[in-house]
Design brief:
Number of strands: 22
Oligomer: single chain
CATH architecture of the largest domain: 3-Layer(aba) Sandwich
CATH class of the largest domain: Alpha Beta
Largest sheet: 8 strands, mixed
Shape: elongated
């Protein structure tokens, strides 16, 4: 029968991948036009073939009746095109489905693509292609390189790629960020000058970390979190300094000699410590060996952190945070759409001071900053002033304090007030260390503007009350406080006039957060559902009515904090009595809502909005839109708040 060509190659590719979104997720080929490159024809009824770019033979890629396809074949054809058109390798130097000899054994059609040197005999580059959903095969590629004595290997599933550099027999302790063009040697490639334009803000930082962990970090005998973070800090510093250098040259890159790579990267790290103190000790150095560092840099150097999607950076940091700093202490990264709802509802303004006393990764602070930048502080000077003067964070965990500082740097703020302190125990603030002194001085300023001299002087001893306008927080739920010295500082530390033997951590946080607020200040706090409906928690609810006006209670979906926990949570919104809130009232309306779409599935993976054809919706930045209803809840609260004549709503 006559050959019949479908309307769009991308339509068939979407069916082959069984997910139309994967067509747009092939980052390796995002600049390529599938319609111009791939010739896919229906040579038999319901059976689609692609014309091989090397041999011009037809290869079956999709059987419509059986709904089976070969996505890895599409990836191979796109690589053949890129190798030829972008890197300049002629097709006569390529071979597909090459048999690999392992001693006496021959693996037929093992290597997907092989590029030969100019003699057309010596293997130079081996490409191992996989389906976009496949993430394994690097070890297989290593075995091919070893068997063929080949220098360079590429593992690619279209979304991710790893370039191995075998610089002498049986050694794969090296990677490249790019492959040489046909006219280049590897030395030429490593000697090229790199500028900021070379960096890509769309890279998947989490996937990069997973790859380098598989290649070297897991077996390097180092703390993966700390060493990764040192490199991120060094890279942030280099990107910032590159703006001032001639041609915007970047120094954070792989060099031919691993010792030079180590020397340059370690120097950048030490300079970053000086520029952004209180995250690493001055005497710290990068502990990876030059050879191990060379592998890591080969993967990391192309990433652009400043200006990157914070959601992607966030996922990488969440992956890095050790388990001891997450579930075991009840600390979880709050999903950004839940944070955004809180910020929309409380509407922090340009002149208001914002605090998160359990800052974690700094998500609430970043969201507040972006909100004010978008709605109030429009000039560059106003944005910088707000970010550097109005945002405060406290967190006790070393790892999360580092994450919050890094995220704030990436978001555009160079000197945030982020302190490693225990919010629940002001006694620990009394040391004479520089950071504690700075924290006390800065936090005290919030109270000093109130004009209450006696309270100011008392607070210099107790560090109990402060004058923040807005508090946004998700305190850790896990654990009980048994320290009698801590408990006696809280009303909730006493029961029936006696000091309690123990109190759950988040209950103390409720009281502590209200202490941080000025009269008339407002807050949002994530709490376990039991606070709102358990009979044994009634004393907390009565106490709250005396201290603050309940603005709203929003029940979050059960999947919100999965996969870390399935604990049912709600967000409590309060307006502290006094100031513009006035005197306590006995009766008033409260906004109540329950989320029906939490933006995650039962396994904790994000779920995204799709149209009737199963194609994902994207925002103006090209990101998939999370399928949740928290924006609608926020809009409902705004309407309610305007009816109640609250003056803080937008």
């Amino acid at each position: 029968m006559p050959t019949k060509k479908p309307n769009k190659a991308s339509d068939i590719v979407g069916k082959i991948f069984k997910d139309a979104e994967l067509v747009y997720g092939l980052k390796e080929f995002e600049s390529l036009n599938l319609e111009e490159i791939l010739e896919i024809t229906e040579d038999e009824p319901h059976r689609f073939y692609v014309t091989d770019l090397k041999s011009e033979k037809k290869r079956l890629v999709f059987d419509e009746r059986k709904q089976t396809g070969k996505p890895e074949e599409i990836v191979r054809q796109l690589w053949l095109h890129k190798l030829h058109s972008h890197y300049g390798y002629p097709f006569e130097r390529m071979e597909t489905e090459k048999s690999i000899h392992f001693g006496r054994e021959i693996h037929a059609k093992a290597a997907d693509v092989v590029i030969y040197k100019e003699d057309k005999i010596t293997p130079y580059i081996i490409i191992e292609v996989k389906s976009p959903t496949e993430e394994k095969g690097i070890e297989q590629l290593k075995s091919y390189l070893n068997a063929e004595g080949c220098e360079i290997g590429i593992w690619s599933n279209g979304k991710d790629r790893v370039i191995l550099y075998r610089n002498y027999p049986n050694n794969f302790e090296d990677t490249l960020s790019e492959i040489p063009r046909a006219t280049q040697t590897i030395d030429d490639l490593l000697s090229e000058k790199r500028t900021l334009d070379y960096l890509n803000p769309k890279v998947d930082l989490k996937r990069i970390i997973e790859i380098v962990e598989e290649l070297v970090l897991a077996n390097a005998g180092v703390d993966v979190f700390n060493e990764s973070f040192k490199l991120i800090y060094a890279k942030l510093f280099d990107e910032l300094e590159a703006e001032k250098r001639e041609d915007k040259e970047i120094l954070f890159r792989k060099y031919k000699d691993p010792r030079k790579t180590y020397e340059v990267i370690n120097k950048l790290f030490k300079q970053a410590i000086t520029k952004w103190p209180n995250t690493f000790y001055e005497q710290e150095v990068i502990r990876l060996s030059p050879e191990h560092l060379s592998v890591v840099i080969g993967e990391l150097e192309t990433a652009k952190l400043f200006g990157a999607d914070l959601r992607v950076i966030d996922e990488a940091f969440e992956y890095l945070i050790p388990e001891v700093a997450k579930g075991k202490k009840g600390q979880y990264f709050t999903p950004r759409h839940a944070i955004q709802m809180c910020v929309q509802m409380l509407n922090p303004k340009e002149n208001e001071f914002v605090l998160d006393p359990a800052a974690g990764s700094g998500g609430f602070l970043i969201a507040a900053m972006n909100w004010v930048w978008k709605n109030y502080a429009k000039s560059a000077a106003a944005k910088h002033e707000y970010a550097s003067e109005k945002l405060y964070g406290i967190d006790f965990a070393e790892e999360t304090a580092k994450v919050s500082r890094a995220l704030m740097l990436i978001a555009g703020d160079g000197r945030s007030h982020l302190f490693k302190l225990n919010s629940l125990d002001p006694r620990e603030w009394q040391g004479e260390e520089e950071e504690k002194l700075q924290a006390r001085m800065e936090l005290q300023k919030r109270l000093d503007k109130s004009g209450n001299y006696e309270e100011q002087e008392e607070n210099k001893k107790t560090f109990k009350r402060f004058g923040f306008d807005v508090v946004l927080t998700n305190p850790p739920f896990a654990g009980e406080i048994k320290d009698q010295g801590v408990l006696r500082q809280f009303e909730f530390g006493r029961k029936n006039g006696k000091l309690a033997s123990k109190v759950e951590r988040h209950i103390l946080f409720i009281e502590r957060v209200l202490d941080f607020l000025r009269p008339g200040g407002r807050m949002a706090i994530v709490l376990p559902q039991g606070i709102f409906n358990n009979t044994n928690m009634e004393y907390i609810r009565k106490w709250l009515f005396d201290k603050a006006r309940i603005l709203a209670v929003v029940g979050l979906h059960g999947n919100t904090f999965k996969p870390h926990t399935g604990t049912k949570t709600s967000v409590l919104f309060l307006l502290k009595w006094g100031g513009e809130a006035g005197e306590p009232q006995a009766d008033y309306p409260i906004f109540m809502a329950v989320s029906k779409k939490g933006g995650k599935d039962n396994s904790g993976e994000y779920s995204y909005k799709k149209d009737a054809n199963g194609v994902y919706a994207h925002d103006t930045a090209g990101r998939k839109i999370i399928d949740h209803d928290l924006d609608e809840i926020a809009e409902g609260f705004k309407k309610f708040a305007k009816e109640q004549k609250f003056d803080f709503v937008k």
